């Protein structure tokens, strides 16, 4: 379990993390989601005792990381795929890390095997692709067989097969009762990997809830309706708390009414509808909604709102 | 996004197999943590698994032995000239007559530059490559890792310098013999020269490591080291004024001669003073670097 209380980090006149409180529980995958520069990596470095908090505390299983008797056996972290001397081989890097905790060579071979690095383990890390660097970082994180695993942007640079592998790995680790804390700026990845989500923007926690709650909690029910008589249906459905928008010729988007009531209203007035699709806000939309004021680097060209994802249809 | 270049035949082995990748994991974590001996072992593994380190060590041996041989030849030429040229004879006599004893250590200036730079690099590269995050995540108390690295660097510098100097002496013997010059590698002055110079190079390596830790940048660290050991002595000589003449004696590079002198040379430090000065040059940056390493973010 990871617990942050009033955790703050100030660099000069810039506040990277502004007094955050959160708890990462064991036995589930907790995603740490936020735009670039939101304070994810800084928070993770503070958990690992690499950056000193300006104020506040963060503990792992009740103890600050630096006071653990066998840190690598309790907490494994991938903080940066490049946390390796580029002129050393992957095997020797892991061997040197393992030596600090008398972790046997067999375990070094095991993590190399399980991260798929066996063929390149004796090669210099400097020649590794980003994806291989990530695998080495994950191998290093797993070296001490830790109860708590912290991964900062683990799928960055991985090929699709590697992405699936990481997804399955973290789910498996959580199913074993481990604490898994995973950061990403990719909402789509979080949607399929995390059970619980902590959303951070400009150093502040803006949401901390089960992932399903974040997706459904924000938006209202929306339904897409196609009909021959859009004007009549619009008139019929309009009411308190209900908004109807004509999107195309025969396409309406209804907010605030569930599909059953739309269908009933249409049936009673003998209006034929030929499509009725419940729309669910995607995590992407929920995330955009949550972080729209918190993004540090706005794009100059504002992209249109993310396209809604069909949940029921087809 | 796809960028791994793993052998495609292996890919299936870890694709989509939920439980398989983490095979071998078990239960809760108990086991030994980072004791000083384990951290020392880790730092030694890190030290010997870098090709660049091994190349620098090899260069040190070559340079010290090479300069020893060259110096033996030059010294022989000089003594031959002294036999026929009264002016050279006077100069020879002024040197105390025993030039051969300094032959094995004649490459020390270069050994200190190489091993001092190695000291800088071993620490600065931790920060420039990001390795420091791995190192200090494994040893979050930080000081044990720093002390272990310091020990590895200093012991290596001492042993390597001592071995190279002895080897340089062995290589010089037949050359000096050719000119009827005598060198006894077991004489107390030879042993003193070897030990003091080896300790001195170990001290320079320690100063280099402290600079690497303070500056966290390879070029900056090496330039500082060169500035302290090569530029400052010359600059202090050129700047007029008694202050710089006096201050020059306290530069770390000028502490070896007083420590190895057969008898005290006027207007230089006493041997014990020189030892204290060199000690201070080591202890102050090393302690400062340790304090800041503990305090600063990695």
Helix content of chain B: over 70%
Strand order of the largest sheet of chain A: 5-6-7-3-8-9
Q: How would you sum up the major sheet of chain B?
A: none
Oligomer: heterodimer
Task: Based on Cα principal axes, name the global outline of chain A.
Answer: elongated
Query: SSE string of chain A, helix = H, strand = E?
Result: EEEHEHEHHHEHEHEEHEHEEHEHE
Helical amount among residues of chain A, as a percent range? 25-40%
Helix count from the secondary structure assignment of chain A:
11
Distance between the termini of chain B: 29 Å
Q: How many independent structural domains of chain B?
A: 1
Q: Assign an overall shape of chain B.
A: globular
Report on the structure:
- The complex is a heterodimer of chains A (314) and B (298).
- Chain A is elongated, with a radius of gyration of 24 Å.
- In chain A, the strands form three sheets. Chain A has a six-stranded mixed beta sheet, sandwiched between helices. In chain A, strands 11-12-10-13-14 form a five-stranded antiparallel beta sheet. In chain A, strands 2-1-4 form a three-stranded antiparallel beta sheet, with helices on one face.
- Helices cover 33% and strands 27% of the residues of chain A.
- Chain A has two domains: 2-210, P-loop containing nucleotide triphosphate hydrolases (Rossmann fold); 220-280, Alpha-Beta Plaits (2-Layer Sandwich).
- By secondary structure, chain A is α/β, with parallel strands linked by helices.
- In chain A, a hairpin with a 4-residue loop joins strand 11 and strand 12.
- With 298 residues, chain B is an all-alpha fold.
- Chain B has helices at residues 8-11, 36-48, 51-84, 86-94, 108-129, 131-138, 143-178, 188-215, 218-238, 242-248, 256-260, 271-295.
- In chain B, helix 3 (51-84) packs across helix 4, helix 5 (108-129) runs antiparallel to helix 9 and helix 8 (188-215) packs parallel to helix 12 (271-295).
- Residues 1-28 of chain B have low confidence and may be disordered.
- At the A-B interface, helix 2, helix 3, helix 4, helix 5 and helix 6 of A face helix 2, helix 5 and helix 6 of B.
């Amino acid at each position: 379990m990871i617990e942050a209380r009033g955790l703050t980090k100030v660099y000069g006149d810039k506040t990277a993390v502004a007094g955050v409180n959160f708890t990462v529980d064991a036995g589930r995958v907790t995603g740490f989601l936020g735009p670039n520069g939101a304070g994810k990596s800084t928070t993770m470095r503070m958990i690992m005792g690499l950056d000193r908090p300006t104020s506040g505390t963060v503990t792992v299983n009740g103890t600050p990381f630096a006071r653990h008797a066998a840190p690598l056996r309790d907490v494994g972290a991938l903080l940066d795929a490049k946390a390796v001397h580029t002129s050393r081989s992957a095997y020797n890097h892991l061997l040197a890390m393992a030596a600090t905790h008398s972790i046997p060579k067999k375990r070094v071979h095991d993590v190399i095997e399980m991260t798929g690095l066996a063929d390149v383990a004796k090669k210099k890390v400097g020649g590794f692709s980003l994806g291989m660097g990530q695998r080495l970082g994950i191998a290093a994180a797993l070296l001490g067989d830790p109860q708590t695993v912290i991964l900062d942007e683990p799928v960055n640079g991985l090929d699709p097969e590697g992405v699936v592998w990481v997804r399955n790995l973290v789910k498996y680790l959580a199913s074993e009762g481990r604490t898994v804390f995973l950061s990403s700026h990719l909402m789509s990845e979080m949607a399929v990997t995390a059970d619980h989500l902590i959303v951070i923007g400009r150093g502040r926690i803006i949401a901390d809830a089960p992932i399903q709650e974040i997706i459904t909690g924000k938006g209202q029910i929306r339904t897409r309706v196609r009909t021959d008589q859009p004007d009549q249906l619009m008139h019929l459905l309009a009411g308190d708390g209900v908004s109807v928008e004509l999107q195309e010729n025969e396409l309406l988007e209804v907010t605030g009414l569930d599909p059953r009531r739309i269908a009933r209203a249409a049936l009673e007035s003998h209006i034929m509808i030929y499509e009725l699709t419940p729309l669910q806000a995607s995590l992407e939309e929920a995330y955009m909604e949550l972080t729209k004021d918190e993004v540090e680097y706005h794009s100059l060209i504002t992209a249109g709102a993310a396209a809604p994802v069909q949940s029921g249809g087809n | 996004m796809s960028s791994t270049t793993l052998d495609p035949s292996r890919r299936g082995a870890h694709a989509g197999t939920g439980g398989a990748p983490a095979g071998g994991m078990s239960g809760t974590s108990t086991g030994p943590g980072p004791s000083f001996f384990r951290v020392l072992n880790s730092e030694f593994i890190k030290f010997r698994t870098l090709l660049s380190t091994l190349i620098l060590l090899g260069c040190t041996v070559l340079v010290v032995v090479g300069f020893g041989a060259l110096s033996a030849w030059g010294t022989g030429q000089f003594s031959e000239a002294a036999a026929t040229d009264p002016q050279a004879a006077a100069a020879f006599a002024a040197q105390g007559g025993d030039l051969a004893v300094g032959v094995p250590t004649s490459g020390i200036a270069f050994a200190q530059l190489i091993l001092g730079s190695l000291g800088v690099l071993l620490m600065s590269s931790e920060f420039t490559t990001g390795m420091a995050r791995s190192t200090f995540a494994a040893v979050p108390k930080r000081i044990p890792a720093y002390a272990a690295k310091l020990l590895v660097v200093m012991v290596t510098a001492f042993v390597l310098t001592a071995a190279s100097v002895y080897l340089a002496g062995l290589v010089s013997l037949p050359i000096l013999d050719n000119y009827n010059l005598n060198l006894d590698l077991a004489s107390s002055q030879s042993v003193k020269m070897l030990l003091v110079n080896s300790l001195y190079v170990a001290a320079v390596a320690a100063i280099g490591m402290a600079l690497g830790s303070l500056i966290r940048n390879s070029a900056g660290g090496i330039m500082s080291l060169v500035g302290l050991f090569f530029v400052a002595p010359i600059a202090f000589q050129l700047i007029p004024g008694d202050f710089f003449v006096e201050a020059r004696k306290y530069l770390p590079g000028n502490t070896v001669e007083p420590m190895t002198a057969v008898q005290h040379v006027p207007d230089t430090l006493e041997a014990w003073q020189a030892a204290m000065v060199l000690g201070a040059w080591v202890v102050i940056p090393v302690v400062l670097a340790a304090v800041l390493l503990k305090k600063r973010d990695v």
